[in-house]
Amino acid sequence: MSDYICNACGQHNKEGTTICSSCGKPLDHEQSTKLLNMRYDGTAIRSKTRNRSIVDKVWNFFSSIKVGVTLIAIALIASAIGTIYPQEMYIPATVEPLEHYRDQYGISGQIYYQLGFHELYSSWWYMLIIGMIGISIFIVSLDRGIPLYKALKYQKVKRHQKFLTRQKLFREYENVSNQDKKTFVQNLKKRRYRIREDNGHILAEKGRFSRWGPYVNHTGLIIFLIGTLLRFLPFMHVDDMLWVREGETAVIPHTNQEYYLENNNFTVEFYGESEEDAKYEESLENVNQPIPKHFQTDAVIYRDTSMVTGADPELKKVKKGKIVLNEPMSINGLTLYQNSYQLNEFQSMSFNLHKKDDQSEESIGSFTVDLTEPKKRYTFDNGFEILLDEYFPEYEIVDGEPESVSNYPRNPGFVFLVYPPDSEEPEVSFLSIGRNIDPTNENQYKLSLADFEVRNVTGLSVKKDYTLPIVGLGAIIFMIGVVQGMYWHHRRIWIHPDDNRLLVAAHTNKNWFGLRKEFEKSIDHTNFSMIVDQEEEKEDNQ
Amino acid sequence: MIDVATLSNTLLYSAFIIYLIGTVFFAATIKDKQKRENVGFVHKLAIFTTVIGLLAHVGYFVTRWIASGNAPVGNLFEFVTFFGMMLVFAFLILFSIYRIYLLGLFTLPIALLLIAYASMFQTEISPLLPSLQSHWLYIHVTTVGLGQAILAISFIAGLIYLIREIDQTIPTKKTKWLEVIMYTIFATVGFVVITSGFEAANYNATFTYEENGEELSLDYHLPAIFGPQDAELVTENRMDAWLDTPTWIQGAEAPRKLNTLVWSLIIGFALYVLVRLIVRKRIAAVIQPLLKKANSELIDEVCYRAVAIGFPVFTLGGLIFASIWAQQAWDRYWGWDPKEVWALITFFFYAIFLHLRLSRGWHGEKSAWLAVIGFGIIMFNLIVVNLVLAGLHSYA
């Protein structure tokens, strides 16, 4: 312990101190002339002094800059690996991921998949690395920040001679007057240095707050990381889709059936359709498919005011407006984004019934099927009756059987039963776009598609994210900390009178060039000469 | 009435020529016999020319904006020319602090190369996709461009430091890597030379091939070394492909991109070998004596200072503004798109740079090597991610 008692002023310093916290005398070898390591102003750092318990060991591990940098480097390499092939979320959802990676990228794709790199960023080990970086940031900030804060807060104006002589920037002056000193200090004051004086000793300091920059930005990062962690709690965010056809009104999910959205109109524009796109002519010639210019949902929001669950909703209009990509709409804390669309979905189809051998297809009866809520039975005054036996909204032949692959009328298929007035036995007809099948080949009547109507469907994503304010706050604090630490510098100049000499030393945590320039300007109109860079001098002598 | 779009192109061309003249003046500052402290006439002329060049460059940017109605940062040509503009601007910022003329001698040729490189891509005014139609387009992209440009100055300072400091009397690993950096510059020149050469000759060879049962065709504007898999040449009197593109190279028009890359590397290598044969020395060894007067400690400080200034700007533009926009357009602030990931990698890398420098004392050569690697990452994100790792940002 005796090493940490200062032999100049008797101060009892904490174990691990390298510069006496009271008088500033270096606590290393008496004869040493090496430049002082001014990091954390020579105070004792917990991680450098204690290494006994398991807590100490964990603490020391995470507070090491080497470990922190290594962790960031690992995260960097891992992140890069994740971009070699697309992540799972960017591959088509219809194929089996393993097959996709194998077929598209061969054996290396298969290995990529088998190592789990297809969902690398949500893998446990990637999150562990990021988590460890977070812990490291937290511990290192406490480990270094607190002692540094104390050291700077309680620093004294008067420093031991050796503290000055062993600074990087130092010079001894003999021929400077009191007036020179005064002018020098005045100049420093003009340059916004805070001047403290103690018995002829002077400490001029500025930009100390920039020393807190790293700790502020680390705090921001920790808040940010906490925000991203909270996103794993299901109740912290809402992530849903809402499809609404033109002219229809649908309840907005996650509003307790309180809010409804009506899709008044959905429009898509493509480049090249209007005259103002003439400037893109050359560019458009080079691409084959149309480039979308704008898509927009004209939406009306209603609120159910019936107050009674189960009762018929009484809708009151609360909001009207457009939803465009980059211009989402907010309602009751939820945000609605223009996410996707489905163009020309069939709304209804009209059919004509006629005799099969009738070349002019003279109508015996015509009817319209509403494709969202198709009626089952269609009767006619002349006694004909048609039953819609089966309806496939998006029909495909799967294993020889017709089947619907979705509930959206994108490619409707129908099985109709036609009952002529004089017959109990129906005739079966199968219809879809471009197909008209008579399975028995004995039908006397034929149905044909007469007309259809289409409409657009808008796909809105419904989002709410309570973590956004936390993440945003973290990001703002981080930015403030980075700017604070990077764009300002902590500069100190000490003046130490000794008999008829003046010792002057200067220190900055970074940007020595700026400090030298400032020093040069501050000794204007005085007999002070330029301070000496002892590091440079040493190199020159070698 | 003058066509604004034509005026815009003329201004960019003028900027190119003025930068070229500026480079000559900067070269003359080295030969200037004046003392280090005194600033001669040629020094002033060099800076003046740079400022005029930058004004022409800004003029291009503004007129193109007027012509297209959108901030001209929407495709690779527009972004790279913008990046070149920001590079010159960033140089002027750091010059105003440190007054190092040598930086200009290295910055202007790189700006020239960037403009030339950009011009090899589609230069027409092209329409903006709905997701890009937002004020955030220019807030985000311009901040990123500025941040990357300031970080690029760190690379330039690092490169000057390495050329000056690395011992060229004996061949070492260091001299070899330094030559690799030199070679990449030659390869970029090679790309410009070969592309513009065959473009002037109107070279076109069309290949047809089959993919997933679909008949596709691909136009080559350079003779095909690597053709598409099992492709058939349909244009007459053109060289047929020597080799098939390996199947693991994926993505839109991948065979043509590979072909262009291989050509650039070959021409770059030829140029490099030619120059080496003429000067009979390593390229870096040829430049080294010119940098004798440079104060290497100051250059090292610039290398660090550029990162200190550029890192916050890049973070703000590349991560924070990017996230705000992504939240607005795609309803998630982060989506692990390759471009996003590489912005994060850039962030990680410069965070490491700063920690090593400030806390572990990595100064001088170590720090200079890091600055070079950092620029490599930025260029990778700009070029490889756009052209090879297709994603939401592949707009070129």
Automatic annotation (TrEMBL), chain A:
The keyword Membrane applies. Its main location: membrane. The keyword Transmembrane applies. It comes from the Bacteria. InterPro entries: Cyt_c_bgen_Ccs1/CcsB/ResB, ResB-like_domain. It is a multi-pass membrane protein. The chain crosses the membrane at residues 58-85, 124-142, 215-233, 466-488. It is found in: Membrane. One of its GO terms (biological process) is cytochrome complex assembly. Residues 66-417, 440-520 form the ResB-like domain. Keywords: Cytochrome c-type biogenesis, Membrane, Transmembrane, Transmembrane helix. GO terms for cellular component: membrane. This is Cytochrome c biogenesis protein ResB.
UniProtKB/TrEMBL annotation, chain B:
One of its GO terms (biological process) is cytochrome complex assembly. The keyword Membrane applies. It is a multi-pass membrane protein. InterPro entries: Cyt_c_assembly (IPR002541), Cyt_c_biogenesis_CcsA (IPR017562), Cyt_c_biogenesis_CcsA/CcmC (IPR045062). Pfam families: Cytochrom_C_asm. GO terms for molecular function: heme binding. The keyword Transferase does not apply. It is found in: Membrane. One of its GO terms (cellular component) is plasma membrane. Keywords: Cytochrome c-type biogenesis, Membrane, Transmembrane, Transmembrane helix. The chain crosses the membrane at residues 12-30, 42-63, 75-95, 100-118, 138-163, 175-198, 261-279, 302-326, 341-358, 370-392. Residues 74-197, 265-393 form the Cytochrome c assembly protein domain. This is Cytochrome c biogenesis protein ResC. It comes from Gracilibacillus halophilus YIM-C55.5.
